[in-house]
Amino acid sequence: MCTVCGCGTATVEGEKKATEQSQSHDRHHRHDHDHHSHDHDHGHSHDHHHYDHAHHHPHDHDHTHGEGGEVIDFGAGIAGVHVPGLSQERIVRIERDILSKNDAYARDNRALFAAKGALALNIVSSPGSGKTALLVRAINDLKDRLAVAVIEGDQQTSNDAERIRATGAPAIQINTGKGCHLDAHMVGHALEELDLRAGGVLFIENVGNLVCPAAFDLGEAHKVVLLSVTEGEDKPLKYPDMFAAADLMLLNKADLLPHLTFDVGACLANALKVNPHLQTLVVSATSGEGLAAFYAWIEARAAHAKTHAGAARAG
Ligand SMILES: Nc1nc2c(ncn2[C@@H]2O[C@H](COP(=O)(O)OP(=O)(O)OP(=O)(O)O)[C@@H](O)[C@H]2O)c(=O)[nH]1
Ligand SMILES: [Zn+2]
Ligand SMILES: [Zn+2]
Ligand SMILES: [Zn+2]
């Protein structure tokens, strides 16, 4: 997972910029959504993990060289990651601290979704596999039947939020700056700007990245991982955490299959090797192939969330 990304630079559209926020956070933080009592330390940002050190240093840290020297594994230590200057134990402590704070925010978000009876789906994939295209299509197909809202995460632009708003659905942009994933705290702030409906769906489009978003619970009911057929059938094996964390995999861009040598069966088998409980659908955001099954999957879960909210109120 990502220990040292610049998550302190996030801005939620409509809120103060992160720099202003970090300077005045204690005083001006609007937590009227009754979520999280927390100490804020998100004025920080650090460099991302780069392996740009020349390889003539003394080995005071661990990574393993393969038998023949052909593999240098920086993830072989207990932290599963290598950061120059930090011991494995220290990285594990930092990760635990970041994730336990994240999990507290995620619990608050989840409680809010449950109270409102809304279904939240965290859409994760590598850049360009078709998250926004799929959401635009799904919103157009579903908007007469379901209330849909969207939180859009990316590093810099509002392009995707604008594509979503063109459908008429409300969308809040979160820019993560150098950060390579959304976290539950950012999502909690975006939720302050959204009106969730019972039986409705909140799509959260995560930052395009098959690695870091796997580690962060946003309070969603399910992670939905998109993989496109142009990316290669070995991606679930190369990036197993993401496929292990997801409950549904959509294999997108199926309309391109006639032009490729992509082996759908091998890809699905690789995904199931990593996560035997993963549900899979082969779809195309362009042609609409396979999407009826995705919509049925969503509608069943949205109806369940609505029923659950009624029960929570009664109880
Ligand atoms: N042929 C084909 N192209 C697709 C399909 N889905 C998306 N695309 C194209 O793939 C490109 C990237 O799609 P986006 O929806 O922007 O991908 P994304 O995952 O939102 O990208 P990031 O937000 O940058 O991570 C666009 O040119 C889309 O038109 C599909 O099912 N078939
Ligand atoms: Zn990272
Ligand atoms: Zn997108
Ligand atoms: Zn906050």
Features:
alpha/beta, 315 residues, binds guanosine-5'-triphosphate, binds zinc ion
What features would you describe in this structure?
There is one protein chain. The protein is α/β, with parallel strands linked by helices and 315 residues long. The protein has a domain at 95-313: P-loop containing nucleotide triphosphate hydrolases (Rossmann fold), CATH 3.40.50.300. It contains nine helices and ten strands. The protein has helices at 18-28, 88-116, 131-142, 159-165, 184-191, 235-238, 240-245, 264-274, 291-314; strands at residues 11-12, 64-65, 72-73, 119-124, 148-154, 171-175, 201-205, 222-228, 248-252, 279-282. The protein has an eight-stranded mixed beta sheet, with helices on both faces. Helix 8 (264-274) links the parallel strand 9 and strand 10. The longest helix has 29 residues, at 88-116. It is globular and about 60 Å long. It starts with 10 loop residues before the first strand and ends with a helix. Mean pLDDT is 86; it is low at 18-30 and 43-51. One zinc ion (ZN) binds next to loops.
